[in-house]
Amino acid sequence: MKYELLKTEGRAKRGRFHTVHGVIETPVFMNVGTVAAIKGAVSTDDLREIKCQVELSNTYHLHVRTGDKLIKELGGLHKFMNWDRPILTDSGGFQVFSLAGIRKIKEEGVTFNSHIDGRKIFMGPEESMQIQSNLGSTIAMAFDECPPALAERKYVEDSVARTTRWLYRCKEEMARLNSLEKTINKEQLLFGINQGAVFNDIRIEHAKIISELDLPGYAVGGLAVGESHEQMYDVLDHVVPYLPQNKPTYLMGVGTPANILEAVDRGVDFFDCVYPSRNGRHGHVYTNHGKLNLFNQKFEKDMRPIEEGCGCPTCRSYSRAYVRHLLKAKEMLGMRLCVLHNLYFYNTMMEEIRDALDAGEFAAYKKRKLDSMAQGQD
Questions:
Q1: Which positions fall inside the tRNA-guanine(15) transglycosylase-like domain (predicted)?
Q2: How many CA atoms lie within 13 A of 231 on its CB side?
Q3: Is residue 98 classed as helix, strand or coil in its secondary structure?
Q4: Residue positions in the annotated binding site for Zn(2+)?
Q5: 142-196 pLDDT, tens per residue?
Q6: Domain boundary residue among 249, 272, 295?
Q7: Do 179 and 301 sit in the same domain of this protein?
Q8: Which residues have a catalytic role annotated?
Q9: At residue 378, does pLDDT exceed 80?
Q10: Collapsing DSSP states into helix, strand and coil, what is residue 286?
């Protein structure tokens, strides 16, 4: 289990992360399959075809439905969903704090009601690690609190201090679980999460503390939750230099193609976001010349693919006019084709970023890509 830093250009990193489920070439975009499936009827066979390296599933959602113990009984998440490449599971922390209307935070963990059936659930660091161990994911995220981006300083300080204490407990519990005979993935990796809202001094101090734990990777959490893009970039400018350069740096829940390009430039090499699949399900598709809304009437007779030269399954076979027809007719195939295209676009962009870094031409690539996407589309 190691991260090779192959090349840098400014702060941008080109890496290779070796895991028990295969090598991850970075920078990488993880395709979000919350409940062990990409929304929009996308299968794991599809994921292989559209160049997905890492699938991301959600600890909280799989715990409340279908249940992590059942998934363990069935051989773990990889076997359950027929995916032989890396899987990252987030800790459930963000969902606990965003979905649970009524929750009680204590030092032990959080008590809240399930958004599915209202039953009372307790989750703390140990429970989150146990659930993720049952799932057998490649990378498990530490259980943390995600404070609102614009929360008051005192609240953020207390929250970050508790998140730090929880991280120590996560590390200890994962070591214990990885040593057990019946654990599915004894090589499961723990990533710590940096928090601190938009207070750079809190984030920097937190980054220093968690870096001392020498974890396999580190995430920057609590962004893209209400702050501006400029505030997000400012936080990255300040905090990323204090996270280990020789470990993966993961920006959670981000973002648009422009966000990703800007964050790569600031030293981030792992990403995830629901944008490509969510937008695709609503007929919004990404191209190198901006985003298209296929519900727009101007595409009614447009027999071109979504993007000329795109190698995705949708563009190889279908026209804008046909995909628009499917969307208007509320046929599931329309959503599926848009999601496939968008994920292919994101995965291909990451491939282009890696190629540009290999060639020492990332700065030129970034400018060209941003200029092109800002032009708009015909």
A1: 11-373
A2: 13
A3: helix
A4: 310, 312, 315, 341
A5: 999 988 878 899 999 999 999 999 999 999 999 999 999 999 999 999 999 999 9
A6: 272
A7: no
A8: 90, 272
A9: no
A10: strand
